[in-house]
Amino acid sequence: MQNPWAELSPNGGAYLLDVDREQIEQYSTVQVEGAKLVLESVPEPFIGNPRTANVVLLLLNPGHSPDNPQAHRDPVFKAALFRNL
Fold this sequence. Notes:
By secondary structure, the protein is mainly alpha-helical. The chain is built from 3 helices and no strands. It has one domain. The protein is globular and about 40 Å long.
């Protein structure tokens, strides 16, 4: 299985995979109060390698914080996120 996250560009803009684009654009046309897709932050689907982990914690989506854009511009943090993907 090929890792689709490897196709994500670290250069910014909308962090959106081509394979997801049609569904995301379709979803974005629906207005849901209190819900908004944020595509300007680097995706954080998991931390570490689930294949070699001794423990896997299943958590809810962490959501988006107003602090995320600043944190995601930090080159060290951004590089760590992309290594994780």
